[in-house]
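Notes on consecutive records. When two proteins share a document, each keeps its own sequence and its own token line. Never mix them. Below: protein one.
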Amino acid sequence: MLLKKQMRRLKDKYIIVYFWARFQEEVKSIPFVDAHFAHPCSVKKFNTEQHRIKMHDMQFVPDYFENLNLPKRWDLLCIATASKNKNLHKLLKTIKMAIDEQNDFTACLIVPRPEKLKGGNWDKKFFEMYENELTEDQKGNIDLYTPLRSEASIQPIPKEFLPYLYNSAKFFTLFSENEGGPKVIAEALMCGTPIIVPSSFTGGINAYLDESNTYKFFSLNEAKNMFISIKMNHKEYEFNPDYLTDKLSASQSAERLENRFEEIFKQMDIRYKGSIKKDGLDSKLSHHKPTIPEIYRRNPARGELGSVTAAYKYIKYYIFKDTCNVYTITYEFILLDLPYRILRFIEYIIRFVDKFVPFDVYKTSKLIYFKLKNQQNKFH
């Protein structure tokens, strides 16, 4: 039917690459996909003959993230959105414990947030705890910044300013247990800032966490002890990040990425005329800088497709688009960051639409549902 036809037309013009951001136990073949961005620490089992690019957006840290040898203003730094999976309320509880034991312990928390915390995805407990459970003296030890996220970016702080923040803290921490990268840890590592994360932490950055740069905790009390230990003896925890440059810097990773693209083109017997646009890959690959037209997005600030209908319209948009806004090459790459469940749903629709419905039902997801339901009722 129509969606399958459009996907075939899309493949005539583009090579389609699926980007796996968050950790996946297993990846299998996906219809219409030619290659996968699948870092070994993001994908445990890669069970498909489709091409693989063993890279992640966290490996494209701009070269100005470096050790600046600045005086330390804070003991702890955390940069994380206010979503529940970041476990900011647990972090705040641990900071309170550290201040209770060491009253000069200091922290800087940068928590970008939407104007209104609607829905159940936000860590409202964090804000309630800060307002109701901390004394004014304890709040005085914490520099809390909650800049509003805009439609243009989920990170409202200028990226060029971030190296100064990382360099001004004795350590960086995240309390989330499952991340895509994340880039903030990669950026902190490139600045020579030690990391503290939960022992259960999973994410692509695990490939670059070692005994010299990262410390993992099993309980909040253990995390508190680490906080105080690094505060009191931070010189003992310092490390030289130069050995990570080859693995995480944008300039070197972009070159490796282009070499991999050339290999894939050759294997697919397609002429490659390069080169890719190398600027801002740390944001573009992770859809943190939207390249999808806003009308198709689920969230205005992110490059995520909002529905099956949006996926269909986006595909149609690219079929008739002269140049790709991600890469400008003969067979342009398009990074379709569709959630896996949407692709599975597309397969489901194709199977049933081809079998039961002899006309276009792709106007809205609701229309799809009712037409399928009505058509199936005719057979009962």
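Protein two starts on the next line and is unrelated to protein one.
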Amino acid sequence: MEPVSRAGTSRKLGLWLGPALFLLVLALPTPPAMADAALTAGAWERGPQLALGMLLWIFIWWVTECVPLGIAALLAPLAFSLSGILPWMESLTAFTHPIIWIFLAGFVLAAAFRKWELDRRLSVMLATLYKGNNPRLAAFFVACLPVFLLTLTGSITASTAVVFPFLIAYLQIVGVKPGSRFSEGAMLAMAQAATAGALLFLISTPPNLIAKGTIESFAPGRTLTFLDWLIVGTPMALLGLVISWAVTFWFIKPEMKTLDVDFSRIARLRADLGALTRGEKSVLGILGIAMALWILPSIVRSLAEADPGLLGASDTLSRLMPEAMPAVLVEIGFITNPQDEARLRDEGYRDRIARALAAGLASYKRTYDQRQGVVARR
């Protein structure tokens, strides 16, 4: 147990030593030659100190492995871009295209929703909002509205996979038989609501981000912001939700006028969820902060058109907080799984992962070679 205890102590020490060294280097008086070099390059005079402090911080975290190595690496673009030393486009492109960072943020949000079962909570809470027994309205609140809102996690397929089993359970609770017109209409309305939800937010589905990247590449100086999407895409998504629901049940009329709903069973489903867990609160908090940061620069830009005094603030926010910046914060913020963290720190577990990856790649290569008619060497 002694090596494990020693490793745990070094990680705790490294967790605090890294940022402490960073702040110490940043607080030291700036050497005149360093300041002159920074000003000549058009950078902040303390930029070289910030770079040196960040180097020490990342080095300490890498050596002590107090956080995953990739997370420590993300500190560099975050610090250099927020301080104005490097533009976000330049710092993030060293890893991958900035649009990919927004893709990854959507995937991370979806994984976090599933991990903490926040998607299930949202689905159950929306379903219990309607207290009546009209089959059409019940289908809207149980099937359409949850899957529509859950597309904010970045995948209409994932949101449908979450709502589908709950819809099946609801149909059983109200005594609807398989193959009925109501169950058919509810399933179809759910699918159409998911499709409409693809327009809800810029991150609701990957093609939205591809469209953003295409617009920016073919129209230099133009961009498609989150606020632009909220103004144009979100109203269209809401219209699509209502229209698809109405049209579906216009053609597929339920065979019953009312549903025999056991509200006590539905209430028990909601009660079983219990209070919000720490993980759920973390997910909601990070999502809220990310959405606010995604929208804030666009709001300030719109206000600056009416008040020229805000042009400086608008330019600063646009430079320091492009859409990729909140995405990086999302990816850093979701290191909330102590079980996986503990496993990844175990050398034997990492070795098994590496061997499994190597075996998978070798198996794929053999299969590929066989398909290409190549005899693999043994």
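For the record: The longest helix spans residues 278-306.
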